[in-house]
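Holo model, adenosine-5'-triphosphate. Inputs:
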Amino acid sequence: MSAAGSTPAPGAAKPLICLSGVEKAFAGRPVLRGVDLDVLPGETMVILGGSGSGKSVTLRHIVGLLKPDRGVVRVDGEPVQDLDEDELIPVRRKVGFLFQGGALFDSMDVFDNIAFPLREAGWDEERIAARVPEVLRLVDLEPDVARQMPDALSGGMRKRVALARAIAVNPQAILYDEPTTGLDPVTSTTINELIRSMQRRLGVTSVVVTHDIDSAFKVGDRIAFLCGGRIAFLGTVAEARTTTDARLRAFLEGRPHEEFGTC
Ligand SMILES: Nc1ncnc2c1ncn2[C@@H]1O[C@H](COP(=O)(O)OP(=O)(O)OP(=O)(O)O)[C@@H](O)[C@H]1O
Ligand SMILES: [Mg+2]
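Output:
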């Protein structure tokens, strides 16, 4: 394991996603105070942190939806904060985003929801018609779900459809914002297994943002704990379980900690 922001050891894989000294304030209130994080190709990095600690803000920086006040965000070596909306299109094809809450288009059926990013990427309709059932199968949904409207689906099915949409263009990385929040424990388990199987079957790099500790330990290879606007802990799942870091221990055990005021 390398420490956050440190130079990888010679021969180590080049990070696919790299945040370096990222600072972000809203209306003068700092949220990120210097986030350093390298995500290696093929790994599942979990960002754990309290509500309002800046987890979603961190993810939004990776796909250029937010620009840092200071610092650098690189995807595959490219500094995304310098790119305009047109230049960001290839980055967003490389990095799929599963938004907090799913965010399906309610006026479109499942087929058109999944087809949306493919049409944006210029795929022809014949290729799209073949791809939609393929990605539905990858998330363990029957092809006939394609003609349903999102309103008719359960929360767990909506998450699967959102995941199918995120993987449709074959991204190298997927960012998951709270993939299990609001789901019952059984459905949460199946979504966690799906995240793992995306990694295994597609070799995809994942960043999973959550405050669900159980999910974090199930899906993660490494855990980054966001607290006080910085990565306060970075290590493997095994290292997180046995950490002596007082803030992470308190968070894992659901105890208050005086520094959580800034988490
Ligand atoms: N676009 C924005 N404009 C102003 N403030 C924002 C904006 N986006 C986020 N914030 C603020 O930044 C802080 C961190 O927000 P963020 O959504 O990243 O938290 P989070 O860690 O994802 O929390 P949760 O677990 O509740 O989703 C919050 O105080 C939020 O109000
Ligand atoms: Mg959030």
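The beta strands are 17-26, 29-39, 44-48, 70-75, 78-79, 95-98, 173-177, 205-210, 222-227, 230-236. Residues 1-6 have pLDDT under 50 and may be disordered.
Archived with the compound record.
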